[in-house]
């Protein structure tokens, strides 16, 4: 049982000389492919920009996170590695904002740059939205030469843009999709309602569903409850804790479906509260048809169509539903199969996900690796990790590294807490391109 609760990367060589302040100063040199990148593989070393899962509250309803540079796979430390943060592509003659000498194979540089989400396009006016870099770039220097760069990207169209690379002929269960665990348990909605203490063990994301989707998530793990004594009947919950009305979330998904040609999985994973009468299931199904029906993928394509078959149907939103009700409705799919490591230990997280991913590779139905810690009652009581934010700070870099090392060949869905605090989206985009080359 589970808890209730990223198009190819630009790889270039640049030269670095020191300016009078002792910071790296950039000059252009020729481009090249790093030695560890081969056909039919993805980069197993490099760096990426993350938005920290940890945050600082500035009032009862708002908080700021940090821009971080995460690096991985830098095994030859005698080669004098450094990593840094730039506001533009390091090929431009500008110094970094922050940089650090690397003394470990993987790690994190928390910069002084703060993130408030204001750079993300608004769903009510998404003009100009595209797959592009925001003004945060990571660079890895090896012996005074930058060998790897990446940026914090918006990825609203990544899947449909890959369709031009023959992805349309690939089966859905053979695509690697980044996702968000407990996607609706977002501090975007309920910080002031729940308070800091409850919130730190309730929230698993910071972005709205719209923001999660434009940042690249294509799998949304959803928990819906029914409340008979409120004006709005359907709410998103984390277990028994009510977050916000479902209508806010379906408006986000509808806006994204209108604005893109992406395929999205809306996995109604649990109905934790209030579904003690058959009429309430039907009421929820009618609600979903009303607000999302025009995009809902027909059950006739279940369980494992090609992406091209989904696009050709004109209906790109796969809505799954628990219980036996799904089989009786033409636009509901059976639920995604979830793998829960059920651990608060990093070594166990890896070993259990290793086994699950290996066992499910080649499956002909959707399956998801739930790549996050499950806190014990004692963890909550003693405020271990200072909540789920701190837990994600521990797990998200290793999960990104493991995905790049081996899981990318086999995984279907990888669902994360605080997805932008990982490099899973860019790794998934690279992996799907590599799979097409294999």
Q: Which structural class should the secondary elements be placed in?
A: alpha/beta
Q: What does the largest sheet look like?
A: 9 strands, mixed
Q: Which percent bin holds the helix content?
A: 25-40%
Distance between the termini: 35 Å
CATH topology value of the largest domain: TIM Barrel
The number of domains: 2
pLDDT < 50 stretches: 3-38
CATH-level-2 architecture of the largest domain: Alpha-Beta Barrel
CA radius of gyration is 21 Å
Protein name: PI-PLC X domain-containing protein 1
GO molecular function: phosphoric diester hydrolase activity
Organism: Meganyctiphanes norvegica (Northern krill)
Signal peptide: 1-22
Structure overview:
The chain is of the alpha/beta class. It folds into 2 domains: 14-153, Immunoglobulin-like; 158-437, Phosphatidylinositol (PI) phosphodiesterase (TIM Barrel), CATH 3.20.20. Helix content is 26%, strand content 26%. It is built from 11 helices and 18 strands. The protein has helices at 158-162, 187-194, 196-200, 209-214, 246-259, 278-292, 307-313, 346-360, 377-381, 388-405, 424-437; strands at residues 14-18, 24-28, 46-57, 63-72, 81-86, 98-101, 107-115, 133-142, 145-153, 177-180, 219-226, 234-238, 241-245, 264-270, 317-320, 337-339, 367-370, 413-416. The strands form 3 sheets. Strands 10, 11, 12, 13, 14, 15, 16, 17 and 18 form a 9-stranded mixed sheet that branches. It has a 6-stranded antiparallel sheet with strand order 2-1-9-8-5-6, with no helix packed on it. A 3-stranded antiparallel sheet has the order 3-4-7. A hairpin with a 5-residue loop joins strand 3 (46-57) and strand 4. Helix 10 (388-405) packs parallel to helix 11 (424-437). The longest helix is centred in the C-terminal third of the chain and has 18 residues, at 388-405. The chain is globular. Residues 3-38 have low confidence and may be disordered. It comes from Meganyctiphanes norvegica. Residues 1-22 form the signal peptide. This is PI-PLC X domain-containing protein 1. Keywords: Signal. GO terms for molecular function: phosphoric diester hydrolase activity.
């Amino acid at each position: 049982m589970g808890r209730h609760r990223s198009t190819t990367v630009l790889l270039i060589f640049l030269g670095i000389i020191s300016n009078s302040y002792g910071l790296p100063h950039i000059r252009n040199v020729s481009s090249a492919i790093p030695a560890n990148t081969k056909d039919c593989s993805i980069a197993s070393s490099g760096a990426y920009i993350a938005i920290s899962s940890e945050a600082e509250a500035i009032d009862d309803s708002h908080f700021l996170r940090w821009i971080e540079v995460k690096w991985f796979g830098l095994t030859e430390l005698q080669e004098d590695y450094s990593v840094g943060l730039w506001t533009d592509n390091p090929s431009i003659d500008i110094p970094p904002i922050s940089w650090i000498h690397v003394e470990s194979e993987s790690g994190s540089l928390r910069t002084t740059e703060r993130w408030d989400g204001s750079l993300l396009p608004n769903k009510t006016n998404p003009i100009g939205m595209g797959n592009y870099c925001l003004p945060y770039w990571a660079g890895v220097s090896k012996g005074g030469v930058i060998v790897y760069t990446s940026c914090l990207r918006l990825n609203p169209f990544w899947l449909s843009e890959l369709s031009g690379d023959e992805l349309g002929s690939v089966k859905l269960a053979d695509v690697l999709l980044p996702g968000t665990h407990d996607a609706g348990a977002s501090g975007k909605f309920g910080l002031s309602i729940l308070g800091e203490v409850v919130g730190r063990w309730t929230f698993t994301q910071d972005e709205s569903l719209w923001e999660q989707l434009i940042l690249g998530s294509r799998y949304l793990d959803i928990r819906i409850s029914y409340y008979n004594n409120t004006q709005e009947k359907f709410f998103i919950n984390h277990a028994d804790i009510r977050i916000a009305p479902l209508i806010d979330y379906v408006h986000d998904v509808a806006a994204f479906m209108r604005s893109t040609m992406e395929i999205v999985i809306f996995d109604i994973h649990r109905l934790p509260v209030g579904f003690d009468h058959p009429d309430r299931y039907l009421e929820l199904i009618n609600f979903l048809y009303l607000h999302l029906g025009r995009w809902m993928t027909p059950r006739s394509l279940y369980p494992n169509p090609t992406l091209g078959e989904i696009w050709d149907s004109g209906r790109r939103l796969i809505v799954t539903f628990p219980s036996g009700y799904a089989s009786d409705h033409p636009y509901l799919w059976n639920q995604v199969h979830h793998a829960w490591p059920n651990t608060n230990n990093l070594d166990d997280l890896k070993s259990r996900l290793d086994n699950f991913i290996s066992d499910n590779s080649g499956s002909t139905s959707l399956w998801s690796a739930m790549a996050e810690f499950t806190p014990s009652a004692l963890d909550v009581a003693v405020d271990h990790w200072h909540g789920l934010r701190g837990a994600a700070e521990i797990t998200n870099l290793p999960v990104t590294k493991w995905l790049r090392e081996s899981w990318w060949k086999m995984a279907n869905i990888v669902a994360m807490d605080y997805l932008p605090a990982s490099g899973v989206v860019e790794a998934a985009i690279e992996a799907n391109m590599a799979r097409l080359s294999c």
